[in-house]
Amino acid sequence: MHEPSGTQVPHGSEGGRRDGDKESNEGGESGKGGQQWCNGSRRRYLATVGLVSAGVVSGCLGLGNDESDVLGDPEYREGRPDPGGVSMEEMPDLNGGLTIYSGRSQPRIGELMEYVEAQYDDLTIEVRYDDTADLISTIETETETPADVFYGSETQSMTHLKDEGYTVELPDEVVELVDTGSVDPDGHWTGFTRRFRAVAYNADTYDADELPDDIFAYAEDERFQDDIMWPPDQGSFQAFITSMRLLHGEDETRSWIRSMIDNQNIEVSPGGDSALAQAVGDGEVSVGLTNHYVVRDHGGDSVGLAFTSDDAGAMYNVTGGTVMADSDDTETAANFVQHMLSAEAQEYFATTTWEYPVIDGVAPLEELPGTDEFDPPEFDLNELDDPDPTLGLLREENVL
What we know:
Helix content is 29%, strand content 16%. By secondary structure, it is an alpha/beta fold. Helix 7 crosses helix 8. The two termini are 34 Å apart.
């Protein structure tokens, strides 16, 4: 049995907590905050039509004019070994124009988009940053989507597009770069990063080894009465409940929810996972159910992470990409997806988003637990595709 593990989270740099990490009900990141571009007529035009060119954000992101500047957060890059994996230099060249529909926000990935575009003289990348649900709705109403790549902030959206016939299978040389648990078994999407569920705790109140490694114990342990919080409007939380339904059954899931409400009097976060992390750090509650990476929004040593074992509380989800069937150049689109799996991109994700790489050779931040400390359940992420039964359950129990 996996022993509960924990880590103290140091103060995050500006680069590590730029956008507040607001998530949509699809589990994605709001792109609306990402539309506050620097000045420039072309930029204003692109923002008006919902697209932003990767190349026009230089100066907003700190890369300067030197295309050789290293990606990622300097505070957390320092002292790390050179990343392993395949370098962008060893991947096929990118050229022409690519349109990316991104459920990840510009402050999260804009620097990386600019970096990739800067590597190739004949490449133009335009990105539409928006709420994941809005992007899906847009694709479904477009006669022919201009998107070449859909960049998802979770698997639900990518699986939905696959099931509806909007995507194509990725080449073997792309999916073979990724560990098997982070790629679609049918090869239509691949993960770029992994996000683990976690229990954020106030380190002045608990040590990690004092907390349960069973998610169901949090509904029974009297220590957590009036002292625990969840963010039920967040897509990542809803995916967690979906996994609980599928792994443990709807009756047990409903019972857990009822016990959290009736016995523990669980509090609702006033502002998603970031506000939850803040509340835990400030001692408003001692424990919160969240994702591993959002605690970086609260600096200092007052917030730690603990993890459950082999249950829904130990699940992970992935951000990732899929190639759209309507693309005029699916080969270049697939090569772009491959670039997100390069050593450079994976190092960027590790040091900037605090998420876990999906390729061998790039380590997570030393401030985070190693992946060998996790004990996630065996679970096909495609099964998270249908949120409706979960939303119905949460509404029936007056959680939403």
